[in-house]
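Can't attach files on this board, so I'm pasting raw text. These are the components:
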Amino acid sequence: MTDRILTVRMEAHPQDSHTLATYEATGGYRALRTALSSMTPDDVKAQVKASNIRGRGGAGFPTGVKWGFLPEDLRPRYLVVNGDESEPGTFKDRILLERDPHQLVEGIIISSYGLDVHHAFVYIRGEYPKPARRVQQAIDEAYAAGYLGSDILGSGFSLDITVHLGGGAYICGEETALLNSLEGRRGEPRIKPPFPAVAGLYAKPTIVNNVETISNVPWIVANGGAAYAAIGPERSAGTRMFSLSGHVNRPGDYEIVMGMTWRELIYGIGGGIPGDRALKTWIPGGASAPWFVPDEHLDTPVTIDDVGANGSMLGSGAVIVMDETTDVVAAAHRIVKFFAHESCGQCTPCREGTTWLERILWRILNGAGRPSDLDLLLDVCDNISPGLRWPPAMTTICPLGPSAVSPITSIMRHFRDEVEAKIRTSEGASVG
Amino acid sequence: MADASDKVTITLDGRQVEATAGELLIAAAEKAGTYIPHFCWHPRMKPVGMCRMCLVEVETPRGKMLTTSCTMPVADGMVVDTASAVVEKAHEGILEFLLINHPLDCPVCDKGGECPLQDQTLGYGPGESRFVEEKRHHEKPISISDLVYLDRERCILCARCTRFSEEISGDPLIEFVERGNHVEVNTFPDEPFVSYFSGNTVQICPVGALTAKPYRFRARPWDLEAVESVSLVDSVHSKVSVESSQNEIVRISGVDNDPTNQGWLSDKDRFIYEHIHSPRRLTVPLIREGDTFREASWGEAVGLVAERLGAVPGTAVAGIGGARATNEDAYAFSKFMRSIVVTPHLDAQLDDGLDPEFAAAVHPRARIDDLERAATILLWGPDLKEEFPVLYLRVRRAAAHLGARLVVVHPRVTGLDLVATHTVRYRPGEGPATLKKLAAGDGDLAAVRAALNEGPVVALVGRPGLAEDPRLAEAVAAFARDLPEATIMPLVRRGNVFGALDMGLAPTLLPGRVSVTDTAARTALEDEWGALPEGVGGGATEILTGLVSGDREVLVLFGADPMRDHPDPTLVRSALEAAGFVAAFDLFLTDSSRLADVVLPVAAFGEVAGTVTNLEGRVQKVNQIVPPPGQARAAWSILDDIATAMGGSLGATGAERLNKEIARVAPAYRGVTWDMLDWGDGREGIVVPLRGADQPLRHIPVDTGVPTVTERPAVHSARVLYDDGAMLRNCPGLAGLAPRAAIHMHPRDASILAVRDGDRVLVSAGASVELPVVIDAGLAEGAVYVPFNLVETAALGAPRSIRIDVVREDAS
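---
Top answer:
Structure tokens for the assembled complex are below.
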């Protein structure tokens, strides 16, 4: 059984996996030839749907279903690849962009053929100059080789790809903010509906998919959707990129088949905690995900649904491990500060609330906490994400504001005594 | 149009309520009597759902969900809770968030007392704040234009101002900068918020973040007295609220009148009131003594005017003006001149308008609201942004947001070109040839001609420039009326010019849209007024040449400044100097009234009540809120005194009584009373004639064969919004906003003359003035553009031909 798809080539050819020569020599663009010569666009869509692949950007929405939302009669349509990977601890798309860009380009071409798209965009975060360069090189090579442009490989199908670099805003990873940014507007999420599939880029039907999602398409088309669906647990099909960071002996990007337990991931693949210190907590799916703790979650399977059922998410596959030496209030503060910094500022609760939360945590950290801050923190969180449920309810347009709530509810749930202790020691101190 | 099938039923707080499908929930709720608090939502702009104040709970298959009612269209069966515990907590939360960084400097804030943030905090707020940190600080306030201050600390970032400037006015010069907690509204570096519409952002700001410099710290809202009125800055007649404190008008705000201004005003509408309280206002009658004036009593001044008007045959007397007066004053002047003085020489226009029969009685006539349904709009006339700014907003809305195709024909780039489907540029003088080519769809105009084939078509026609033949507009209208479902709107700018024409202040018209040659109507009017003068009188230019030649001897200027508004100021000066006697009704000593023998101080806007008529024939009421200064009086009462002194009687004992006389005597105005306009169905105004009333004159536009002129350079002379008119000159806030005078040249013409941007040239027609050159690629080649009536260009007027001499620096 296949246990790796996306990282095989970069592992085997560490020096030049990004070049067209290596890509072609290792089977690259064969899926494209197959698709263009012997598959209809509907066949491509059917294979992607049959693969059961779920979006790798964070929300985990089934890709084939998303593709089905495009209205039949509206043209042009656009495909936008989301490479604005900006969440702390997430660095999986980076190596796919940097080290196997042709895999992505081929995925884009096949997907565009399936979707009847003739102009695709790759939006890459501005802090990824090398990955962006590599993707542009790959696109240039693909044009030169006849894989892009008009009448690709004599099939009559034409496609152009434009690479666009972001301006350093995490929010542009949110698909509608990304579209605004691509259009030259402020990176602010749009109100949905309409969804991008109906009115996206330039108000035209648009599919926005993550880099990793699209990078899987050549394999799916080459091997069939059923083969992909057979990998891993039923509702978490395929392999999955994980970015493992924090207090582990072997941090890094890993492509794994979902279904193993967190224990296996952290202690097996991650090599355990340095100095054999005790595991205190970990974030299972990026900075916006509620935290897991060993007592409750170490034997929970790493699948989209199991993590969801336990009140968190696999999100973008960023696993941040924290050992017993971690000051969880400081960790939560750092994450909240990130979201406050990255709030686009359009919705009142997120713009004002995330900064307020950050400042309360800062006070507590700096010896100026008040006993009332415990309730205040939770109530401000409640005003951003009413009911403090999972998945979160929102008083905002997009989930960025509620993302800042997760670390606070996590520490209040699992480590309330540590927060209280900081406040007790600061009683009598003046407000900072 | 909505019909019964568009109706849906929603459950609003347990109540069954009817709404229109697709309507936004917040609007549907308000109609049903349920107010949902909000800041960013504005009924005249697209929703953005940013402030989050209008959250309500809507039932969905997945349970109740908080959603912004400003972005949620109603659907049949929708169940909405606007006051659940969850909603109330959300409201408290949003308000607490908004207030944590708000400075709460309400005691010194212009908005205090009429502030949505204050009101909603009282109604929906948490009562106390738990925020103990330092608030966000910004420099207070920063000047973002000549008229507007921005206080970023007060701003709650609702994007009303930024949306207005992008969506409504099309001057996107203010924008959010930065992000998150650092977001602020600001201008772009080195680009001030220069917009003709900036005051609207002040009015719609839900806090005191944007304040108007002329109003800042002038009053507290609870001390203001207000009346509804209409702006007389141009003939669109936007509805306004005129607000005064201690007998001084301190503010004008836009009122949302759906068929006209939809809430918006130009900054000229909004800040023009400053002239009313200018220390230069005339407060006492003046009588000429040599080169100066002496103050006189009303008795003496009225006696002198009556004596001099009575000393010559009636036909030796002529009257110019009335376009700034109310219908009642215009009617009184018309009656006075025709029945007391007995002269047919009357003109409210200054040869800067259109044929009076065409302007007053064109058929079929367009309404502003026709723009909402227009498939195609043909604009061949003035640059609306400069001369009819609120009409510009309506046309822009139709073209940018309602899908109308817009064809703009003008000698120069206009404010609407950006939203136009087609623009046609031509040299002034060559309009007739351009029209012929357009009508035939020849050459490069084939696509433009084709664009005009989809109706309904609204044709807005007027004079693109004052140096062009005024009959061109009617020729365009004659072409346009054959387009599918076409209606025509003649564009003449001055305040109440359409009211004045309708009151008979034109050589060819009698009150109520009646031709002076209509025998039956003349007889009916003679029953009321007594004998009328014979024949058709002379228009403004004929009156002026008559004064020079001696055919006319006496001139009454009725609120007119021909030295500045007539295209030929040299002729005007000769006429005023040649006249045996000139009486001027005026607010100020203008270039014209300065040459009069008697100057009579009259009441201004806000100082009299009356009716006025806009460019679509809509009659609305203007109201009094302050008394006139000193001894200044309503014009009708002065005319009544002069009539009495001449041994006659106008029978005018009050403006409302004059209105009743108009409603009886003027056919097209039959039945239109103040009561209807103040309290009845006429609050949006009444387009005359009322159903059942008669309009004797219906003017079908005809092309009279306007000659093409191919003189070079062709002269384009047009007004700008802020010119050197008498009212603007006396508004401290607006006077400095006039553009720098210059002569604009197409780059190729400039290269032929070997002049560069900023070089100086001597421009000569009747007078010579030295002007800097502006290279203007937006101008038709072969034409030059000189703004009309700026301080430096006033002496030129609008000549049809000019001579240009390059001023060379002396090499030695």
